[in-house]
Amino acid sequence: KKGIPPPSPFTNAYSKNNNNRRMSRCFSFASLRDRCLESTFKKSGLRLTTTGLGDDTVMQCWVPKLRQDSKPNLLLIHGFGPNAMWHWADIVARMTRHLNVYVPYLVFFGESYTTRPARSEGFQAQCLMRLMEAHSVTSSLSVVGLSYGGFVA
User: Fold this and answer.
1) Of 71, 100, 109, 137, which is most buried with the most CB atoms under 10 A?
2) How far apart are CA 31 and CA 29, in angstroms?
3) Single pTM value for the model
4) pLDDT, mean of each 10-residue run, the chain (153 residues)
5) Domain range spanning residue 67?
6) InterPro entries from the entry (predicted)?
């Protein structure tokens, strides 16, 4: 895709050709839960996007399939540990009824990565704001962060 650098060797995309990894995903509780949660997010009206931010930084984000200008915007920032789907799955279906919900994977989570040396909460926050701008979310935006996501918020 234009503007998106190749995957980092530290992302799942790099190891997809590894047969042992594919086989272990068949029997992994975490992989099974990820597939179920992915279905939950899709049924809630979200789709997974990958966005290049133009500086060798790429971010994944669950975004509304159809954004409605009449709904307020909400950014849910996950904490350290489990991925964004695991943190927000219990509320995403209820929230998407009333809000345009955005659920990003912070840099170095999911398939989000950078080749830049920055590693601070401030850098994560800058990346999130650039991601929201890339998705044309420039009006008011409410932000909720869990644990580490709270520091980033």
Assistant:
1) 100
2) 6
3) 0.81
4) 59 51 64 85 96 94 95 95 87 95 95 93 96 93 94 90
5) 12-152
6) AB_hydrolase_fold, Meta-cleavage_hydrolase
